Amino acid sequence: KNIVILISGRGSNMETVVRAAQAEQWPARIAAVISNRPDALGLAFADEHGIPTAVVANKEYPTREAFDAALRDVIDGYRPDLVVLAGFMRILTPAFVAHYEGRLLNIHPSLLPHFPGLHTHEQALASGMKEHGATVHFVTAELDHGPMVDQASVPVLPGDTAATLAARVLVQEHELYPRAIRWFIEDRLTIEHGKVHVDHST
Ligand code: GRF
User: Fold this and answer.
1) Which terminus of the chain has fewer CB atoms gathered within 10 Å of its CB, N or C?
2) For the chain, what are the domain ranges?
3) pLDDT in tens, 113-158
4) Nearest residue by C-alpha to atom 3 in ligand 1
5) ipTM for this model
């Protein structure tokens, strides 16, 4: 199976997926890492690991529709079975999302349905939540919604700042995302009535 990973920045989640795929010998290959930003740090890691990289710079397109169409063409050139959003910071058009229905995953740094959108750690602190975390979900047209595959939670501790909380969540993301992607690759995930079922029978 072919996995295409989309990033916008540091790419630490992409890195853990690449490492897990290698270490656990997934029946899949990371076909490409694609960024909307030419300066995304994660591109260098992919390059060093022999993974093809591409940049589709959103700034060069006049509209969201034009950018998404170009991005889609580049992605589809790699014949993906799965497209993984890993810190990809662009809102995607409904047409793009529909094209990848059932094969587009995202990780979001909150316990959805709490705190969709940006600044999730600040929001968790401001609301007084005692628990926070991350969610892997299938992408649907509505931002940070869509059937949830798995979640991991962390405590919110006295004295936490957005940075300390983000770091605690990120540790969990790095376990959560490779595991969820592996389930997809192993055909364990089905969506029924908008909910994800994970088959653990084998
Ligand atoms: C992660 O916290 C991810 O959940 C969020 O943005 C961050 C990306 O980090 N959407 P990285 O680029 O994977 O290091």
Assistant:
1) C
2) 2-198
3) 999 999 999 999 999 999 999 999 999 988 889 999 999 999 999 9
4) 87
5) 0.97
